[in-house]
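Ticket #4471: structure output looks truncated?

Reporter: J.K.
Steps to reproduce: submitted the chain below (284 residues) through the standard prediction queue, then opened the result file.
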Amino acid sequence: MNLQHFFDEATNSFTYLISDPVSKQAAVIDPVLDFDPAAVATKTTSAEQLLSQIKQQDLQLKWILETHVHADHMSAAYWLKQQTGASIVIGYNVTQVQDTFNRLYALPQEQMATPNDFDRLVNDGDELELGEWVIKVLHTPGHTPSCCTYHIDGCAFVGDTIFMPDFGTSRCDFPGGDAAQLYQSIQKIYALGDDTQLYMCHDYRPGGRELKWKISVAEQKQTNKHINQEVSEQDFVKMRTERDQQLSVPKLILPALQVNIKAGRLPLDPESGTSFLRLPLNQF
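Returned output as attached by the reporter:
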């Protein structure tokens, strides 16, 4: 399997392009739509870099895989689908996230997010074919209800379940989040085997260290500051709950979620042809 990573400095986010060298089938994991909050403007610069690589390598994009509904950046999934015809995939519990935020934004019926905004909702144990390879799905909730991990060829793309050891784990205070679930989800990831390489969704580079995007299960189990092999579920839940109470709200959560619950579709007003974002006040 061929694998490339792309890093978005503005949101500290990774996107991955994986492909089968024989069939030329490819999948993109967590594509980023560039967003300037001051100008309230989107750009497709990052997604165009992905598309350029796909074309240069003569790849057929089959899957666009979302590890969860992101709260810190907008997704370019729908734009990539328009360019390539690829199918957008996310965990089946995205419906819970959609229901919550349809209500928060008070969206009119015709603008509400629905399961049909995604092409395929996957559950634990589902498999996605990619040429001669198989992508196996692990349901790994805790950060959000829809979180899932994609496992292929000894590589696991873990979304926001876990970060580099010096940063720890993701928050669990979003609607539907659950620290005990996150603990169990990470144990499921650890059970993939010590040699499995975990590919991060973000890297925040504590202390200004160099950028890192992958690490072995063995290293995480030994050194992750929140959830190494010495940490019990009870201690983890206590730590995570206390820590989450001190965290600020992600600065792009309201713009990002309105777009991402619809797989990256911008909310378009049919009369004016302009996209509008709703920003409900005093909700966090």
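Triage note (M.O.): checked the attachment and the full token line is present. Residues 2-246 form a domain with the Metallo-beta-lactamase; Chain A fold (CATH 3.60.15.10).
Status: closed, working as intended.
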